[in-house]
Each structure stands twice: as structure tokens, then as C-alpha cells.
């Protein structure tokens, strides 16, 4: 058998059916028949990888190998659009443009799809590569991800070079559905579409229901005189062209022709443009996808040529944007912040701009993925808004500056300790526990209101103490002689006394606060409280479990789970942490909850030693059950031993159950326990 030929045949057949299914929505063969062909080709490609084409339909499912997104030069100028915000302004622009043209002019009005911009490059009938817009000159090669989008034709019946511009988007219902299953949620469909184009693994992109609409075509060996002809050609080649199209001209023949080519088109004289814009704006929420405006374009290519372009946008097109940006400003720089746990957060330093009642100078950029998604570089003009009306966010690039690189990259090394940064999930981390910045941030966290609440030790004072080398670690807060601050500006006697008093009174904070204030990864106040509620009411008990490497005992606690369970074992077996804890203990901080002896009801459980395992239905937290036992003269211990007499067994018991069975301990269900409590 000629395998090469057979593979080509199946590939062509599959691409045809993919197009019928995903673009035309009128499949001709059953899913089963399709799958059979698909499997046959997949098997042949495994046997004869040398015959597999880059545009094999198998590419639609993507790959698990890590993508790279090298920068590539655009073969056509990828211009942006000038924009206006009011239909009247657009009406004026239209009249001015029509007057400037020598002949009768026509305009299309297209929806401005709010997704991710893409340029598809074809040659010899094959998709060669696909680039993001980037800075307009260079884009990122995201071909492997784009090939997974079933609506993107991989082969076309056009052998000359062709570049096609379009927008990748996801519908709102698909977004809601897909996003609900994601660990890290996307703020809107646009961010998900743009993020998906930059997935490291194309197999992940293949799972996202992405769509494309194309809106410009550059046929290299042909000059097509009219934008409508180009759109029609693109549709004939198998591209998805948005059928919601308006055509406006005072030339009756041109309107007639437009209706012949696109039966669904709205064709009307120029005078009705403003009304059309208003109606589209008013009904945009009825669409299943987001549009952020409309695009008005001259259709005649010769008039486009006459009008020309600026470096940034064509003079023959104009965007009518529905919402003016809340604020616009320049991204001056990006600061790399390192948190106490080493997580890197890039922060935008913005040219100060007034926005709903305050001046905005900074906004978080979350992580490298967010920056990539926006294709954001220093010097760009950006739009900003206040999310939830408080936290400023960078929403979009309005105009690229000409910085290099055009997309900002988080540095490879920690700016504070020069340790190489490591990427884990979406974030970069400084993994150096002794990084000075991490330690300084750790001190801030310890003293903050939510933790030890040492009000007099604010960020500024800590920065000073840290820079002087006086307070480098948490125990230093308690051992430093604050009299030494007397020579410093702003530290009069009163202020120093306030610091001393604040530090002293922080020693009365309860164990839960102290535990959380240590700032250990995964041990914030919720976890600290959960531990204590489940019987880990002293540091000694926690350390004892950690020493035994018993992460499961932690993991069984509701709200802790395996990840934190393992972290706890790690934290509390680390010598430096144990050292820290013992120093702080010596200084008088609380490392156990204060015992409040429960009033005795009777002595029904006297002499008994109980252990509790699993989760209880009635006694939440578990310490409530322990209290009932103690009120009846029994004792409750953490672990099963030869002295244990009773095991209270909840749902999903841990390893304690097996140990109890081995030691012939009486095993009591929660219902039996309730019955015992009722007995006098
Ligand atoms: S035309 C020179 N048409 O809007 C042609 N753009 O700021 C310029 N967009 O990068 C683009 N729908 O990502 C055009 N029907 C449409 C569009 C559209 C969405 C996006 C595109 C472009 C941005 C312009």
C-alpha cells in the first residue's frame, strides 16, 4: 500500500469534514465514521512520522510538549485602529472621508470582536504560521495553538501567499462553562481567549471552545478592488466571516451589488449610519459573544490607497467604541515585588492619572501570563479601570510604544538577592528563604493589624530598623533595644514608648494569631484556627506530629488538605523554624491555647482515654466532642497508644483506626457516642 498517498487522502477527507462540522455546521458523516478515519490517520502518523504534514488534522488535538513562542516579523503591516466614542463623531468622520474621495464611496460596518488578534499566514495552500499582533512589526508565533482551532482552515484552495487577519474569541456561555472549572479564573472571555493562545501545551488549547472571525485578507499575487470582494473570497476559501455586516453607500448600484454578495447584509444610504451604530450598540448584549465596538471601513481599495495610513492606523477605517476607557495613561515602568513567600508580582508604575476620585500611580499586573496576554511593554499607552471601584487594573494596550522587548519579561534573577527566579504554575518565585526582601516583607506581615497588631511598627519604621541591621528577624523585634532609635529623625521619646508598649502587648496575642503571624506558606489564620479546633492547640502537638512525618493527620482536617498537610510537616521539622519558635517562646509569646477547664457534669468517662478520628457530623469542630468527654471526666489525646481506651470514629477515619483496632481499643460511632452522652 502507498501509505503516503493514503495519509494524504485521509487528511484531506478529515479536513473537509472538520470544516463541514465546525464552520458550516452541516456534517455529512457520522461521528463514528469520522473517528474511524481520525484513528486510522493517527496510527499511520505514528508509524510514518516522516509523512505527517504540519497541517495534519491530527494537529487539532494539540500536543503535550511545551510550546515556545518565538518572535517573528509580520509579513504585512499589522495596524491598529483609530477610535471615536460617539455616533455623531463617527457620522462626521464618515462625511469628511466621503468628501475627500474622488468617486462614490462605500463603507462596511463590522462588529469589533473583543477577543485576541491573530494573523494567519498561508502559502502554497497551507497554513504556514500564525502570529499574535505583538507590536505590529513583530508578533509571537502561536501556530501550534492556533492549529487546534477547528474553525481555522489548515489548507485552502489558494496557492499564492495570503495573510488573513482575524479575531479569536469565545462565546459568553462557553466562557461561563469553561471558566467555572478552572482553578485560576479569567476575568472575561477576552482574557481566556488571549490566554489560551499562549498556553504552553497546545493539548490544553484544544480543549477550549475557541472561535474565529476573519476581517481582512492580503492576497499577494492579486489585486482585489473591493473589501466586500475580499470578504467573499475569504468565505469561499473556508474562513468564517461575520455575517452581521452593514454596508453604507449613496450609490444604488453598489448597495444592490452588496446585497447580491451577502444576502444577510444591511445595506443603506450614508444618512442612516448613525442610527445603525446606535441600534447595534443597543442590541450588543443580545449577541452570544462580546463586542467592544464597531469598525467602519472604506471598501474601495483604490480609495484606501489614496487615504493612506499613519504609522499606527489606517486613515480609511475608524473604530466606534462603546465604552470610553475609564482612564488612559502611560506605563512608565514595571516593578518586581517579592512577597514574604517568594512570590513575584509585577506592578505597573503608571504616569499619575485621576480616576474616579483618586490619583492612580500603580496597578498589579498579576504575573507574566497576564502581561503576555495584554502584550504589554514599558512605554505603552494603556487603559485602566477600577475593579470593584477600588483596585486599579490595567485592562488593555491602547497604543504600543516602541520599547524593546515589546512585551515585558520578568527578570531571570531576584532583584534583591540575585537568586534565579523559578516559575511554578502561573507565578515566578524567589526560592531563597534568606532573601532580604522576603525577610523584610515577613516582618511587615508579622506586625500587621491582622496578625500581631503592633501598630507602632509600621512599614516605614520596619524598613528603617531593617536597613540599619537592627531588626533582621522576628525575635529581634522582642530583643532590640528601641532606645537606640532616639537619634533617628521622627523618633521622639513618645514614639519609642509607643513601640515598646506595642511590642510588649503583642505578647498577649493568642496562639492562633502567633501561629499565623509566623507567615509560613499555607498557614494563615484560617488554617491556624482549623488546626487548633481539631486538637492541635499547642505548638508542641503540631511539632510532634510533624516529627513523625504524619502529614495525613493534618490533611484529614477540614480546610487543610494534602498540600497544606505536607507543607506543615515541612515547616515544623525545619531546624530554623524550630529555633525561631523556641526563641519566641522564651521571649514570652503564646504557643498554646489557654486551657479553660470545662465544668464537670459527672464522672461517667472517668479513667478513660479517648482519641477522635475522621470528621464528625454533629460535632464541628471536633473539639466540641472532646469537650463533652472532658466534662465527664475523660481525657482526649491526639494519638492512639496502648493506654487508649476509646476511639471516636467519624467519617473517613485516618490511620488511627487501624492502630486502634490493633490495640483492641473500643471503637465508638458518633451515634453511639451521642447515646453515651445521654446516659447519666
Ligand atoms: S480592522 C487595519 N476589523 O481591533 C485594520 N479589527 O484596534 C485594523 N478587531 O487589532 C483592524 N474586530 O484585534 C478590524 N472587524 C474588525 C475587528 C478588528 C476586532 C480588533 C483587532 C485589532 C483591533 C484594532
Overview of this protein structure:
The protein is an alpha+beta fold and 680 residues long. It folds into six domains: 3-61, Helix Hairpins (Orthogonal Bundle); 83-321, DNA ligase/mRNA capping enzyme (D-amino Acid Aminotransferase, Chain A, domain 1, 2-Layer Sandwich); 326-429, OB fold (Dihydrolipoamide Acetyltransferase, E2P), CATH 2.40.50; 436-506, Orthogonal Bundle (DNA polymerase, domain 1), CATH 1.10.150.20; 511-586, 5' to 3' exonuclease, C-terminal subdomain (DNA polymerase, domain 1), CATH 1.10.150.20; 609-679, Rossmann fold (3-Layer(aba) Sandwich), CATH 3.40.50.10190. 35% of the residues lie in helices and 20% in strands. Strand 18 (422-424) and strand 19 (427-429) form a beta hairpin. Helix 1 (3-22) runs antiparallel to helix 2 (31-47), helix 3 runs antiparallel to helix 10 and helix 17 crosses helix 18 (525-533). The mean pLDDT is 92. 2-(butylsulfanyl)adenosine binds next to strand 3 and strand 8.
